[in-house]
Structure formats: structure tokens, C-alpha cells
């Protein structure tokens, strides 16, 4: 169209679509413009929330300019791109982050101040986008920030859930769940693309026919179809014009009224079908590290992967390249097995619809996909029952059986007559009914498989994927240690520390090259610097104490040691062991004389995290924490020496307050169970020390910061199986200190002990699968070492500074660069500032 325009028209467009200026006057005008037009409000009719909406809309205008510019140039240049498929993107709030990344926060801050509002209060009005459960979803968000910042051409693909992770309230000490209807008000951070609509089929049957060359062809005739509508979320990089995209799909009925049912007079059924279609993207499944196995979840997975692949293939076809070029233009990363169906869908599109031969198609598929594994826990491994799968996706089932047959035939050629091996490698588990092992499908359909920390990547090679390593060789299995974005987790969450670091290093280059933090190491011997450092930590603790007062109605002293464990509640993460050790501490204090108490290090133990709504034992752990808190916090014999709080509704924006305020945080999973952990990195980056087991990324954090700056305890991953065996078969007695704690609970020190019996049973009848008893003594000792170290504030300050100084490795920029260079083979593309046309 542009080509057909006369010169005057082109020039007019160019003149009128120049980018917005970013001076304070223009920005204020833009805010007021949105107040009076978009929001239809007047200045006297404003509160913080409307101010937030107006600032958000004005910010969004600038985001859209960058989005258009980046995406326009990328369409023209058409470099290789990566698509990150994730069922979860746990973004949290967007406004502060967008303003900081675009370098506009100060101007907006001043502008809104002069208009009578306080920027920090305005920021607080935004609700979190909570489309994720925990670590896996937040990792996806950090990776999107790094990809944009490093100018990589990357898109995320996910689902636009109407309800994100539930809101947690504590009633009588118990978790209760409330729906997170986050779209109550218009969401300014998404661009609805109502024109991008894709038909997705389900059910039906498969037609088999011979084509004109006598080749057998399969044609899937779905029984129902729904529409996928695109919503785009712009992701601006830090200190670059580049703006990437997360495309989220929403399900809609194909036609509001199914015409057949409608014409047959079956009005009710036609409305019901419409409701069923909407249901697909209604709610995020709230399970972290467990598989629920629900049919609706499988529908979500297919709906999302099919829409995304259709979109990717459509974009590729516009380039008029050969199909063999597909993997040269496109890399697709599978965030765990949730999107593994994409492998099958691409094979189906290439074979059934594009008429490629099976082998040509399969080569393209393998070169395109790579797979990240995030857990070894057996209860988290995705498996789908064959009958249910066949009912929803009959053609995909055939393709999976064919993929499996051809794969096992190759194994048979290499290793003849080993039926045990074929059974162990098979994508199909021979159970009643048969099950599809999604992890096996993901390994077979990808060219690279990675774990998320060194320990974990080695573990998967010797456990769940051992037979695959033997068959494929080592090169297919690699490690990509997780990272976190320093923009959100230091610069945004801890502005004072960020400013001190910039002042000390002389510039803010460290925000794009985190290894530069090592320049802080020399400052440990500078007493004045230590003082500044610890003053900032204290200010952050004051801010957290205010949040605790507001949410828990407990007063805590910012001079006490702040001890934090915030993460999803799970038996393998051992919040239970933590609260048991708190009871031990309480009993110890109670047994002390006044003179002995004088030397006790005061501590505030802070918990936070959600339990999956159906996870009974995890919910009992929350109840126990609250019951202990109720007793301890009221006990005059304890006073300020020990306080216990459970911060309700832990989420990204609460984490932004908690992370900068911790003195010590707990990462105490049974060795070998936490694949990586990412909050461990956030805490240490903010000068918080950690107490932890030799698990996940703790091992690499120890390597970087040195053993004097971390408190390590407990058994090692390779010892776990022997310890479990001994506990099961050799009547190993319970740790005596632990026995004392259990007796105290059973005596009714904290409410009716009957409530907690099922929890206590996991240590006795349940044979203590997570080895709390085995690790308890060394855990108590490590906690005593923490107390002792904290007493020497000057030495503690040095440790804290060293922690931050040596965290360069754990930037998600480093992780993403490794993926780009070693798995995706993509290069950065620098957007040139050309204006709009
Ligand atoms: F089970 N993780 C998570 F592997 O947050 F899929 N949710 C999940 O459902 C799974 C993993 C899954 C976490 C890991 O538990 C954590 O150790 C890791 O740091 C994080 O994923 C990011 O890799």
C-alpha cells in the first residue's frame, strides 16, 4: 500500500508518526491527555489508581512505538529467531520495570509529582500479572527481560489466563484460596490483536487415503473447533530501543452460536459449547512441581502449542524459503514438557498438510526443538493416558506411536535384543491404561536437552535420562545454569543499593555486565563503605517491617536478624524442617536463665508461599507455622528474641520488598531435589547470606562466593539413597533434638496436636522421605553459626559485600547468551532508530 502512495502522502505519514518526545512537558501532557480522554476523568476526580492508569497508558504509547519499530525492522531483515514456549510467564508489575528499562522513570517521577501524585504510591496501585506458579514461570520472565536487553530476536508464546495463580488469605491459620481476577480493569500492558485468530481443532477422527502417487495420507477431521485470539505483551530491553513480544492466546468460541445446534433449535447446547471453548484459557493450574492429569490441562497444552506453531509457520511461509531452511530461521525452546506436543504438531503440519516425507519432516523437527528439564521429582513427570489423549487428539496419537516405533527400531539396530532397554526408553509406558511419557517425547524430538544447574544437569544424565545418554551420547545433554535479571531484582527492587553500586563503580555498566560487580570486592576493607552498605540493608528491613505490620499485624525489630524462607510450600523444600527448628529455638530460649538470654541473637523468622490447593500436607505446614507464630509471638518469656511471621499471598511484588531485606535466607531442600532455585540468586545478589544444602544452584553459588560467605549443611545428593535405605530397613532412631520438638507438638504446645498428626506421620510412618531427621543436627548447628557470625556486624558486612561482588555469573544475561550461542544459534539484531516508516 505504502508503495502505491504519492510522495506527499508518504511524507505526511512520516512527519506525523515521529516518535513521541520524552521531555517532561510532553510526558505530562500525555498523562493529562489520557486522564481526560481515555479515562474520561477530570483532575478533581482522581485517585492513585487513576493516576496509575494514566501513567500506564502514557508509558504504553512509548512501548508500542518501540514494539512497532522493532517488529517492523525484524520482518524486513528476517533474522533467525527463538520462540520460548512457556505455559507460565510470571511477570509481576510492569510499569516500574518498563519506565526503568526505557530510561524514563526519573522524568515520569518528576512529572507525576508535579501533578500532585507520589510515584511510589502510584506504582503500588498496579496489580501483579501472576500467570505462573513460581520458579519456572519467573525464570521465563527473567529470560524475556534478558533476551530483549541483549537485542536477541525472541518471542515468548503462552496463554492469557483470565485467572492467574490464586490469591492466598490466612483464615484461622489455614490457607484459603480466592480467585485472581486480574483483568477487572483494562490491562494496559497487552495489545489485543483481534484480527489474529486461529482455528484449533479437537476430537473427531482420522481419514486415511491414497494420494495420486499412491502414497498413504492422513487427514484429521476434528469434531470441534475453537478460536485462538492473540494478545501481545511488549517486553522492552534495558538501555536499548529493542522491544520483544510475548504472544498470549485466549480461547473463544468459533462462532458464538454453533449454527447446527442453533438451527436444530438446541439453543442450550450451542451456548454450552461456547462456554466450553472459553473455559480453555480460563485458569492457570496452581500445581508447582506436580502433575494433576486433568483433561482441561491437556486441552490447554494443545490449544497453545497448535496456535503458536500455526503462527510461527505462517510467518515462515511469508519468507518463501525452502522447508529445509526452517531450522535455520527458527529455534523453539520447550520450557519443561508442558509444550512437548509442539513436536507432534509440527510433524503433523509438515507431513499431513505440507506433504513432506516423514523423514524430511522429522529432521526439521529435531533441528528446531530444544528442551529444558526443570525437575527430577517423579510426581512432576507429565504422563497422559492414551485413551483420553486419543479421544482429544486422534491423529496426534498415531504420530506419537509412529515416532516411538521408528525411534525404537533405531535403538534395536544399535542394541539388539534388549527388551528391557526398549521398555525403559519407550515414549509409551506399558501400564493399565498405557501412558504417554512426555519427557521421553521431548528428548526424542529435540536436538539438545538441558538441566538448569550443574548438579541437576549431571543428575538427569545418571537418573531419568541415563538410557538416553547411553544411546545418543553425551553431547545432546548440556547444562544451562539459571540466572535472574539484575534490572528487576537489584536495580528496581533495591534502588538505594543500585545507586551505591553505580556510585562506587563509577558508572552503571554493571547492569548489563554483571561480572563488573567484582569491583566491589576491594571495598570490603573500607569501613565507611561498609557503613553505607549496612545502612541501606537496614532501611530495606524497615520497609519490610512495615509490610509485616500491615499484613500480619506483628511488630518486628529491624535490628533483629531477618531470616527468610519464601517459595512454594512443598515437602521437598522442607519448610517443615525450618519450623521444627524454630520450635527447637523457642524451647531452648524458654529453658534459659535471664543471663543466658542476654547473649541470644534476636531473630525474626519470615515465611511466605502458596501451597497447591489440593496438597494437604503442604497446607498443614502453613497451619503449623501460624500456630507456632501465635504462641511464640505472645510469649513474654521470649519477647523480641524470636518472632515468627507468615506473610500471606507471597507474589512477585511482595518478593521485591522481601528480597532486599533479608540477612539470611533458607534454601534447604533435600539434596538432589531442587533443580536449581532462583530466589537463592536474588537474595545473595542483594547482599543477603544464605543457609542451604548442597543442592541445585547453591553448589555454584558456593563456588563463586566461597565457603566463608555461605552456611552449608546436610547430606549430599549421592548419599540420599543410602540414607533412605537405612531409615527404611535399619530402624535408625530419630534425631534426639527433633524427638524433643515432636514431643512438644504432641503435648499440645501449639493448639490441638491432633491437627498435626498427619504431618508428624511423614517423619515416622512415612519414613521421612525428605530426610529431615538425618539433616536436623547439622541444620541446628548451621543456624548457630549464623547467629554467631551475625554478632560480628563488621565481619557480616564484609561477607554481605562479598556476596554481591561475586554474583556476576547468575545474571540471566549470561544464561540467555549461552542458550543463544550453544543451542539456538541466533545472533543479536540491533534496532536502528529510524522513526516509524
Ligand atoms: F516440575 N519448577 C517450577 F519441573 O517452579 F516443571 N515449577 C515446576 O512445575 C517445575 C519446576 C517442573 C522450578 C524448579 O523447582 C526450580 O528448582 C527451578 O529453579 C525453576 O523451576 C526454574 O528452573
Topology:
Layout: H1 7-16, H2 24-38, H3 48-77, E1 81-85, E2 89-92, H4 95-101, H5 105-114, H6 119-124, E3 129-131, H7 135-149, E4 154-159, E5 167-171, E6 174-178, E7 191-202, E8 205-210, E9 216-221, E10 224-236, E11 243-253, H8 259-263, H9 267-279, H10 295-318, H11 326-329, E12 330-335, H12 341-353, H13 358-368, E13 369-372, E14 383-385, H14 386-392, H15 394-414, H16 419-425, E15 428-429, E16 435-437, H17 438-444, E17 448-451, H18 454-462, H19 466-472, E18 477-479, H20 486-492, H21 495-505, H22 527-552, E19 561-566, H23 575-590, H24 594-597, E20 603-608, H25 616-634, E21 642-647, H26 652-658, E22 664-667, H27 679-685, E23 689-692, H28 698-705, E24 711-712, H29 720-729, H30 736-746, H31 757-761, H32 772-791, H33 793-805, H34 812-824
Parallel strand pairs: 1-4, 1-12, 4-11, 12-13, 13-17, 17-18, 19-20, 19-22, 20-21, 22-23, 23-24
Antiparallel strand pairs: 2-3, 5-6, 7-10, 8-9, 10-11, 14-16, 15-16
Helix pairs in contact: 2-3, 2-5, 7-34, 10-12, 12-13, 12-15, 14-15, 22-33, 23-25, 23-30
Commentary on this structure:
The protein is α/β, with parallel strands linked by helices. It has 3 domains: 17-77 and 94-127, no CATH class; 78-93 and 128-481, Glycogen Phosphorylase B (Rossmann fold, 3-Layer(aba) Sandwich); 556-792, Glycogen Phosphorylase B (Rossmann fold). The chain is 48% helix and 15% strand. It contains 34 helices and 24 strands. The strands form 6 sheets. Strands 7-10-11-4-1-12-13-17-18 form a 9-stranded mixed sheet, sandwiched between helices. It is globular, with a radius of gyration of 28 Å. The two termini are 13 Å apart. The mean pLDDT is 96. The protein binds ligand GPW. The site of ligand GPW has 19 residues, from helix 7.
Amino acid at each position: 500500500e505504502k508503495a502505491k502512495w504519492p510522495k506527499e502522502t508518504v511524507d505526511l505519514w512520516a512527519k506525523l508518526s515521529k516518535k513521541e518526545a520524552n521531555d517532561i512537558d510532553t510526558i505530562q501532557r500525555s498523562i493529562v491527555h489520557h486522564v481526560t480522554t481515555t479515562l474520561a476523568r477530570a483532575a478533581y476526580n482522581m485517585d492513585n489508581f487513576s493516576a496509575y492508569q494514566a501513567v500506564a497508558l502514557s508509558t504504553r504509547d512509548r512501548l508500542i512505538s518501540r514494539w512497532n519499530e522493532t517488529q517492523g525492522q525484524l520482518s524486513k531483515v528476517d533474522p533467525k529467531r527463538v520462540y520460548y514456549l512457556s505455559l507460565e510467564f510470571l511477570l509481576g508489575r510492569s510499569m516500574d520495570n518498563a519506565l526503568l528499562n526505557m530510561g524514563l522513570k526519573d522524568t515520569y517521577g518528576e512529572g507525576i509529582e508535579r501533578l500532585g501524585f507520589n510515584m511510589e504510591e502510584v506504582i503500588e496501585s498496579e496489580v501483579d500479572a501472576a500467570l505462573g506458579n513460581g520458579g519456572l514461570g519467573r525464570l521465563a520472565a527473567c529470560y524475556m527481560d534478558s533476551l530483549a536487553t541483549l537485542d536477541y530476536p525472541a518471542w515468548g508464546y503462552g496463554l492469557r489466563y483470565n485467572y492467574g495463580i490464586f490469591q492466598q488469605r490466612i483464615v484461622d491459620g489455614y490457607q484459603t484460596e480466592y480467585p485472581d481476577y486480574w483483568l477487572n480493569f483494562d490491562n494496559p500492558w497487552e495489545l489485543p490483536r483481534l484480527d489474529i485468530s486461529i482455528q484449533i481443532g479437537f476430537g473427531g477422527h482420522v481419514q486415511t487415503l491414497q494420494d495420486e502417487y499412491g502414497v498413504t495420507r492422513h487427514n484429521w477431521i476434528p469434531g470441534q473447533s475453537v478460536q485462538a485470539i492473540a494478545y501481545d505483551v511488549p517486553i522492552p530491553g534495558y538501555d536499548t530501543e529493542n522491544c520483544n513480544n510475548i504472544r498470549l492466546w485466549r480461547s473463544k468460541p468459533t462462532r458464538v452460536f454453533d449454527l447446527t445446534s442453533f438451527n436444530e433449535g438446541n439453543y442450550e447446547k450451542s451456548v454450552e459449547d461456547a462456554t466450553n471453548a472459553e473455559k480453555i484459557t480460563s485458569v492457570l493450574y496452581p500445581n508447582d512441581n506436580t502433575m494433576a492429569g486433568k483433561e482441561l490441562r491437556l486441552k490447554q497444552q494443545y490449544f497453545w502449542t497448535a496456535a503458536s506453531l500455526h503462527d510461527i509457520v505462517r510467518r515462515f511461509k511469508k519468507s518463501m524459503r525452502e522447508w529445509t531452511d526452517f531450522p535455520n530461521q527458527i529455534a523453539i525452546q520447550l520450557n519443561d514438557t508442558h509444550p512437548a506436543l509442539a513436536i507432534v504438531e509440527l510433524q503433523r503440519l509438515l507431513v499431513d498438510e505440507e506433504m513432506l516425507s516423514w523423514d524430511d519432516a522429522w529432521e526439521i523437527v529435531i533441528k528446531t526443538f530444544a528442551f529444558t528439564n526443570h525437575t527430577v521429582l517423579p510426581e512432576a513427570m507429565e504422563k497422559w493416558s492414551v485413551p483420553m489423549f486419543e479421544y482429544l487428539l486422534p491423529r496426534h496419537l498415531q504420530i506419537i506411536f509412529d515416532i516411538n516405533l521408528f525411534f525404537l527400531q533405531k535403538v534395536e539396530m544399535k542394541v539388539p535384543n534388549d527388551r528391557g532397554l526398549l521398555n525403559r526408553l519407550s515414549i509409551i509406558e506399558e501400564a493399565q491404561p498405557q501412558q504417554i511419557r512426555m519427557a521421553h517425547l521431548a528428548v526424542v524430538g529435540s536436538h539438545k536437552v538441558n538441566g538448569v544447574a550443574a548438579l541437576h544437569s549431571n543428575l538427569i544424565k545418571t537418573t531419568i535420562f541415563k538410557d538416553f545418554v547411553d544411546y545418543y551420547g553425551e553431547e545432546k545433554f548440556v547444562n544451562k545454569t539459571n540466572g535472574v535479571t539484575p534490572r528487576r531484582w537489584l536495580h528496581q527492587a533495591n534502588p538505594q543499593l543500585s545507586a551505591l553500586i553505580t556510585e562506587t563503580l563509577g558508572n552503571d555498566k554493571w547492569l548489563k555486565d554483571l561480572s563488573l560487580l567484582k569491583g566491589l570486592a576491594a571495598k570490603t576493607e573500607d569501613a565507611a563503605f561498609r557503613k553505607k552498605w549496612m545502612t541501606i540493608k537496614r532501611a530495606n528491613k524497615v520497609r519490610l517491617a512495615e509490610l509485616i505490620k500491615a499484613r500480619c499485624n506483628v511488630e518486628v525489630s529491624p535490628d533483629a536478624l531477618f531470616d527468610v524462607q519464601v517459595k512454594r510450600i512443598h515437602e521437598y523444600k522442607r519448610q517443615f524442617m525450618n519450623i521444627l527448628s524454630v520450635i527447637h529455638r523457642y524451647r531452648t530460649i524458654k529453658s534459659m536463665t535471664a543471663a543466658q538470654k542476654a547473649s541470644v541473637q534476636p531473630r525474626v523468622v519470615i515465611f511466605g508461599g502458596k501451597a497447591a490447593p489440593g496438597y494437604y500436607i503442604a497446607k498443614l505446614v502453613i497451619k503449623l507455622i501460624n500456630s507456632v507464630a501465635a504462641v511464640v509471638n505472645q510469649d513474654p518469656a521470649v519477647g523480641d528474641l524470636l518472632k515468627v511471621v507468615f506473610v500471606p499471598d507471597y507474589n512477585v511484588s511482595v518478593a521485591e520488598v522481601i528480597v532486599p531485606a533479608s540477612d539470611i535466607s533458607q534454601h534447604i531442600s533435600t539434596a538432589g531435589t531442587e533443580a536449581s532455585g532462583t530466589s537463592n540468586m536474588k537474595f545473595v545478589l542483594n547482599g543477603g547470606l544464605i543457609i542451604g544444602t548442597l543442592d541445585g544452584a547453591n553448589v555454584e553459588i558456593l563456588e563463586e562466593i566461597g565457603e566463608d560467605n555461605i552456611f552449608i549443611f546436610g547430606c549430599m545428593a549421592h548419599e540420599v539413597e543410602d540414607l533412605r535405605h537405612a531409615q527404611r530397613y535399619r530402624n535408625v532412631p530419630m534425631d534426639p533434638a527433633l524427638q524433643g520438638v515432636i514431643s512438644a507438638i504432641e503435648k499440645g504446645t501449639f493448639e490441638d496436636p491432633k491437627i498435626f498428626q498427619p504431618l508428624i506421620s511423614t517423619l515416622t510412618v512415612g519414613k521421612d522421605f525428605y530426610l529431615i531427621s538425618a539433616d536436623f543436627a547439622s541444620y541446628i548447628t548451621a543456624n548457630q553459626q549464623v547467629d554467631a557470625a551475625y554478632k560480628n556486624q563488621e565481619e557480616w558486612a564484609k561477607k554481605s559485600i562479598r556476596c554481591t561482588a561475586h554474583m556476576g555469573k547468575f545474571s540471566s544475561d549470561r544464561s540467555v547468551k549461552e542458550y543463544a550461542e550453544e543451542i539456538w544459534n541466533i545472533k543479536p539484531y540491533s534496532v536502528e532508530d529510524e522513526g516509524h516508516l
